[in-house]
Amino acid sequence: RMKIICLLVSCLVLAMAQGKGAGDFDYFDAFEMGMSHAINMWNGMIKEHLLNEDMTGYNDTIVATLAIVEQQICPADTKKCSPDESWLLGCNCRDGFKRLGECRLKPCELFRYFKDSGPDGLAKFVMAESYSERYAVVFEYFANPISRALCDCPGLVDASVNCVTNYDGRLFSLLGIDRSVFDHVVDNFDWGALSKIFKGYMKVGCGVKDGKECITELTRMFSVAGTFLDNTFSSKDVCLSLIRIEDAFVSYLHTVASFNMETESISSIANRFVDAYLGMQREAICEPSCAGEVADAFYSCCAKDAFDVMFSKPLMKAYGKLWESIWPLISESSQRPDFSQAFKKYKSFMDLGTFCGDSTDVYKVREDRCDALEA
Q1: What pTM was computed for the model?
Q2: Which residue of 38, 108, 209, 335 is 20 to 30 Å from 44, comparing CA positions?
Q3: How far are the Cα atoms of 43, 50, 66, 109, 303 from residue 61, in angstroms, in the given order?
Q4: How do residues 256-307 score in pLDDT, each as one tens digit?
Q5: Which residues partner with 58 through β-bridges?
Q6: Residue 330 CA to chain centroid, in angstroms?
Q7: Among residues 221, 276, 218, 204, which one has the least CA distance to residue 1?
Q8: What are phi and psi of 199, to 5 degrees?
Q9: SS (H, E, C) the chain
Q10: How far apart are CA 364 and CA 283, in angstroms?
């Protein structure tokens, strides 16, 4: 959706705009230049560091590395784990996955999928000529296979957490690296909160609503961002284009440009950011003449369920606990920024039936229909 676009590139666009007056600066040209720069950077990294010259497979270095890693991810199914043989993941990790029954093979299946299909996906990403194509590649080749694996084997989440929290592999000693920082992060990070968040998202993504698989529907929801970009950069003033909401978009960018980390608190910046973002979203999705088309593009029963779960009380509590554990790891300050007000404001966007107010009832009608299907 549009938030993905704006969060990634707004700062870059603003940096390019410095020193130019509003009257002689084309924000969308700069926006396109910023996005093209990012894509060219990713494409260059893929071609230089991952693929061979004709982009038909991985380069020799990656092939050799994958061969070594495969022995660790797909070991012989022996009863007893040898620390010498399981030097990468460790025996605690391996034993944890073995307890998953048939799902113990899923990490190996995923690894071999990416080993075999990864080059094709990466090559298609590099050769894609539109943002819609790029989004489609990312989801088809990378995001969706991981999502489906988690849906098939939800125990993978806790097993993966166990690999980190009880790591007994020998990677640190083999590389001659002090593991004290790793241990400090592991000991102080709230893995339970992270696990709860992942499982909440999985509950949504693995479901079926209105007879439609939510993995597919949520892919469609997020891929709308690609449509917005393609239409915007083709100068199409249509419903699914940032050109339609140019004033709100530029206002959002100006707000971001005005942030001052030296004079403002992080909490204040978060509140102003959310206010500007919600103002832009209101223009994008609530304008009566376009609300129907925008809703058709992304607001399915799966999307509604995702919004409900993402800001449910259990997950809101988990977000808070996770933030409490992260802050001491990234800052020496004992005063943790309070994002509760910003979260409360943002939560209003999750209820689109009321978010648009009297502007349109398109979302309310859809929500009522979804609720009726669940009754």
Answers
A1: 0.88
A2: 108
A3: 18, 8, 9, 22, 41
A4: 889 998 899 999 999 999 999 999 999 999 999 999 999 999 999 999 999 9
A5: 51
A6: 21
A7: 221
A8: -65, -35
A9: CHHHHHHHHHHHHHHHHCCCCHHHCCHHHHHHHHHHHHHHHHHHHHHHHCECCCCCCECHHHHHHHHHHHHHHCCCCCCCCCCCCCCCCCHHHHHHHHCCHHHHHHHHHHHHHHHHHHHHHHHHHHHCCCHHHHHHHHHHHHHHHHHHHHHHCCCHHHHHHHHHHCCCCCHHHHHCCCCHHHHHHHHHCCHHHHHHHHHHHHHHHCCEECCEEHHHHHHHHHHHHHHHHHHHHCCCCCCCCHHHHHHHHHHHHHHHHCCCCCCCCHHHHHHHHHHHHHHHHHHHHHCHHHHHHHHHHHCCHHHHHHHHHHCCHHHHHHHHHHHHHHHHHHCCCCCCCCCHHHHHHHHHHHCHHHHCCCCCCHHHHHHHHHHHHHC
A10: 17
The token pair that represents 89 in the structure block: 């993941």
- Cβ neighbours for 371, distance < 8 A, ≥ 6 positions apart: none
pLDDT in tens, 202-222: 999 999 999 999 999 999 999
The one-letter amino acid code at 181 reads V
Structure-block tokens of residue 374: 């669940």
pLDDT at 169: 96
Whether residue 2 contacts residue 279, with contact meaning beta carbons closer than 8 Å, is answered with no
Most confident option among 41-50, 75-84, 248-257: 41-50
236/228 Cα distance (integer angstroms): 10
* Residue with token string 């083709």: 234
Q: Which amino acid is located at 77 in the chain?
A: D
> What tens digit of pLDDT does each residue of 245-258 get?
999 999 998 898 89
Instruction: Output the pLDDT for position 24.
Output: 58
> What confidence category does residue 335 fall into, taking pLDDT thresholds of 50, 70 and 90?
confident
